[in-house]
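Q: Give me the 3D complex with magnesium ion.
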Amino acid sequence: MSWDRNVIIKSASEIAIMREAGRINALALAAARELIRPGVTTAELDAAAEEIIRRHGAIPTFKGVPGPYPYPAATTISINDELVHGIPGKRKLCEGDIVSVDCGTTFEGFVGDSAFTTGVGIISPAAQRLIEVTEKALQIGIDQLRVGNRVGDVGYAIEMYVEGQGYHLTRIYTGHGVGREMWEGPQVPNFGRKGHGLRLRPGMVVALEPMVLIGTPETRVLPDEWTVASADGSLTCHFEHTVAITDQGQVILTLP
Ligand code: MG
Ligand code: MG
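A: Here is the predicted complex, encoded as structure tokens.
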């Protein structure tokens, strides 16, 4: 995998800056989360996140990211069947929706990247279970981000757990190294072979992000050319943290 040549080891002082980027990012996500209720627009959530980022002297990483056209917002907000990369706008959240908010913050040149999914009002038991399984999958993956483990051990653990729960993981979109760039090596798929792949070393920082689908692993890109949704319209879910791998253990950088 060509990404794996682009693994950049971070010093303790660089990780400290990344911790601050991650903290600001967590505050931005919390501001968006606080507004989630039926009737709020996804643009309002995005504006709240961006305001927090800028108030801390940081930059919304996602804005202007190259793609079919430069990404236009600070967050990606994906509802129900939408898995990732939904563009905030006039769409209003409805009772029973599940909504994923993904955000990136650049602070002093370093990026924090994280995402959560939550329900709007009262949600179905199926949606609740999907959220719980995806959040636990992220924790199971983080537990494997240990010095000496391999990238395949991380993906294997996530895959075994999620598929054991009867759900699916996209093969196309993956976790990734993160640092001065939002996407660095290594690529960290949410599936893998135990004992295979790049060995994890102290100073690696990874954005781990299980993306779970109820129906099938297949996705499609919507006409806006950014939003990725499940091919069959089934519910999807996404959680993400930026995590530093150190000799003292893994450190989640994207906490408030
Ligand atoms: Mg993200
Ligand atoms: Mg990411």
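A quick observation: Residues 113, 176, 207, 209, 240 surround magnesium ion (ligand 2) (CB under 6 Å).
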